């Protein structure tokens, strides 16, 4: 059995000058995720401007994951593909991830909505592929670390 520890905190000053925050600092107890096999998939990609790249494929990489962290030196579009073999209906989620801000997936499970208007009524299925597109104007270095 292996574990990954996560610390995350965002702080700001509101319009009234009050310091606010959410999350945990490194001096506090981290959020610990236990991952079963102890396998780690750690890969770095360099993606040219206007380029696309597959970052993860459940069939080619480590299979499903307990935790995945994606970080890029540039803003990216991230496409998460759920159920690409269409057992429940292939679904896509597209997210914008900010430069130098870790994007954390704490589960490999998503909902395949199969075209449903109410996407909360989808069928639970695995994230099977993750692709990204770099439209930042500069090349991006993207690191993907997945734990299973």
Secondary-structure map:
Blueprint: E1 2-6, E2 9-13, E3 19-23, E4 31-35, E5 40-47, E6 52-57, E7 67-72, E8 76-82, E9 91-97, E10 103-105, E11 109-112, E12 123-133, E13 140-147
Antiparallel strand pairs: 1-4, 2-3, 5-13, 6-12, 7-10, 7-13, 8-9, 8-12, 11-12
- The CATH topology comes to Jelly Rolls
| Share of residues in strands | over 45%
Largest sheet: 5 strands, antiparallel
| Total DSSP helices | 0
CATH architecture: Sandwich
Looking at the structure, what is the overall shape?
globular
Question: Can you say what the CATH homologous superfamily is?
Answer: Jelly Rolls
Count the beta strands: 13
Secondary-structure element series: EEEEEEEEEEEEE
Distance between the termini: 10 Å
Question: Could you characterize what this model shows?
Answer:
A hairpin with an 8-residue loop joins strand 8 and strand 9 (91-97). The protein has a single domain (37-147), classed as Sandwich (Jelly Rolls), CATH 2.60.120.10. It is globular, with a radius of gyration of 17 Å. The strands form four sheets. Strands 6, 8, 9, 11 and 12 form a five-stranded antiparallel beta sheet that branches. The chain has strands at 2-6, 9-13, 19-23, 31-35, 40-47, 52-57, 67-72, 76-82, 91-97, 103-105, 109-112, 123-133, 140-147. By secondary structure, it is mainly beta. The termini are close together.
Write a concise synopsis of the structure shown.
This protein has 148 residues and is mainly beta.
């Amino acid at each position: 059995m292996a574990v990954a520890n996560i610390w995350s905190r965002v702080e700001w000053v509101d319009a009234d000058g009050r310091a606010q925050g959410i999350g945990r600092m490194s001096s506090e107890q981290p959020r610990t995720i236990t991952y079963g096999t102890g396998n780690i998939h750690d890969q770095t990609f360099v993606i040219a401007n206007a380029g696309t790249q597959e970052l993860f494929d459940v069939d080619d990489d480590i299979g499903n994951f307990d935790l995945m962290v994606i970080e890029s030196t540039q803003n990216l579009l991230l496409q998460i593909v759920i159920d690409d073999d269409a057992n429940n209906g292939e679904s896509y989620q597209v997210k914008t991830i900010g430069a130098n801000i870790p994007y954390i997936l704490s589960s490999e499970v998503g909902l395949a909505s199969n075209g449903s208007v109410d996407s909360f009524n989808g069928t639970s299925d695995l994230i099977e592929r993750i692709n990204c597109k770099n439209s930042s104007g500069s090349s991006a270095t993207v690191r993907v670390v997945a734990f299973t």
